[in-house]
Request: fold
Amino acid sequence: VRLVESGGGLVQPGGSLRLSCTASGFTFSSYIMSWYRQAPGKERELVAHIGSTEVNKTSEKGRFTVSRDNAKNTVYLQMNSLKTEDTAVYYCARRAGDYWGQGTQVTVSS
Reply:
């Protein structure tokens, strides 16, 4: 199993980023996929997850949207109206974390 995140970077407050996580080594369409984040000095927290039927939930309703493309084995996290408190390392996970990606840094700063 391999999960590879991309799309992080530096963005100004109010900006947008789209994170991607490409999976391999398992039947992607059969699994719930999750996004977590960990800010400095804080515990890792669940940001969003999406099931095999593409019903999605996010803790940042109205700003973040999770989606998936099963044909590309990829899950996305669209983040809009970013705030400085969104600064964190964002991780992709299978289910609630039986496998993890390496993480991608998102920094929101002016």
